[in-house]
Design goal:
Layout: E1 4-10, H1 16-27, E2 32-34, E3 43-50, H2 57-60, E4 65-73, E5 75-77, E6 86-89, H3 97-106, E7 109-113, E8 122-123, E9 126-127, H4 128-133, E10 143-156, E11 161-169, H5 175-186, E12 190-200, E13 203-204, H6 211-219, H7 223-226, H8 230-234, E14 238-240, H9 243-250, E15 255-256, E16 266-270, E17 276-285, E18 288-296
Parallel strand pairs: 3-12, 14-16
Antiparallel strand pairs: 1-3, 2-3, 4-11, 4-12, 5-6, 7-10, 8-9, 10-11, 12-13, 15-18, 16-17, 17-18
Length: 303
């Protein structure tokens, strides 16, 4: 059974669900999930979890992300991106690159962000975009996000001015909301006209696989080469357990730490073959540090 992460390149026009379904068919594994959606019109890195790696979803979805974004000033749309109908227009001819750069800089830092109504967020089991298409407007909770960097790369002036920017941000950040906010700061309507995600955590677009490349890897028996170990992505301290220790941990038993690590820190416990046995935490025991298993990734019946 395949197990690990796949760095996939989502083309524009496909939904995130489409990408997951295609990968399921290619690798012949139903247990496939993603670490963060991309809007259908957007392209770029989608990191997929395969097999038991889906049990790490809560940790892997928190990875930071980097985007290349084109913002158009002088028009606004109902969806905040290029998919929606234009709702407002204004002449952006007087806008300068300096003004845009200053606006982007103001958006760096922690903030509370409301998910757009035309988004895939669920409310009472229903997608917001489906409610929006029916003309319904509902109250949604703001989420805490952080923009680490919002840098202007290029600017083209005109009645519809365009700015190319790079955004480094936390999971849960809506770049189209940032585009609209940038417009407000310069006093113009604005929308996100194009978006490419170039990095998720440690996974970059240069190494992302197309669906065709993944098919070829499977046909040639190279799927294992394409899979990325979640241990390499999470970057947590690792301890390799021998057979006796692994059996104890698999059954929820605390064991004395057999290597130095920071008390209270999350740990990855690996088997000698490199597979992740479990997530664990180092506790301060009366006779020394103890490894407490927290999340088992391999069936305990194996031990």
């Amino acid at each position: 059974m395949p197990e690990g992460l796949l760095n996939m390149l989502k083309p524009p026009g496909m939904t995130s669900h489409d990408v997951v379904e295609r990968v399921r068919r290619i690798v012949r594994e139903r247990q496939v999930g993603h670490t963060g959606t991309l809007d259908p019109a957007a392209a770029g890195v989608m990191v997929l979890m395969v097999g038991a790696t889906t049990k790490l979803s809560g940790h892997l979805t928190a990875q930071g992300k980097v985007y290349r974004a084109e913002i158009t000033f002088g028009a606004a749309t109902e969806t905040l991106d290029g998919e929606g109908a234009v709702t407002e227009r204004a002449d952006a001819s007087a806008l300068t690159a300096e003004a845009v750069a200053d606006a982007l800089a103001e958006l760096v830092g922690p903030m509370e962000m409301l998910p757009p109504m035309h988004s895939a967020v669920r409310l009472d089991g229903k997608r917001l975009y489906k409610l929006a298409r029916r003309g319904e407007s509902v109250e949604v909770e703001a989420r805490a996000v952080t923009v680490e960097r919002f840098e202007l790369l290029d600017f083209t002036s005109g009645p519809l001015a365009r700015a190319l920017a790079e955004v480094e941000c936390s999971s849960g950040t809506y770049v189209r909301s940032l585009a609209a906010m940038a417009g407000e700061l310069v006093g113009l309507p604005a929308y996100l006209s194009f978006l490419v995600r170039t990095r998720v955590g440690t996974q970059v677009i240069d190494n992302a696989l197309t669906g065709t490349e993944l098919q070829e890897a499977v046909a040639e028996g190279r799927l294992e080469e394409a899979l990325v170990s979640p241990a390499d992505v999470l970057g947590w301290p690792r301890l390799v357990a021998d057979a006796e220790t692994a059996a104890a941990l698999a059954h929820g038993v605390q064991v004395p730490a057999w290597a130095p690590a920071e008390v209270g820190a999350p740990l990855l416990i690996l088997l000698p073959n490199g597979r992740i046995l479990c997530l664990a935490e180092l506790l301060d025991g009366a006779d020394g540090p103890l490894v407490q298993p927290r999340r088992l990734l391999i069936d305990r019946e194996r031990f």
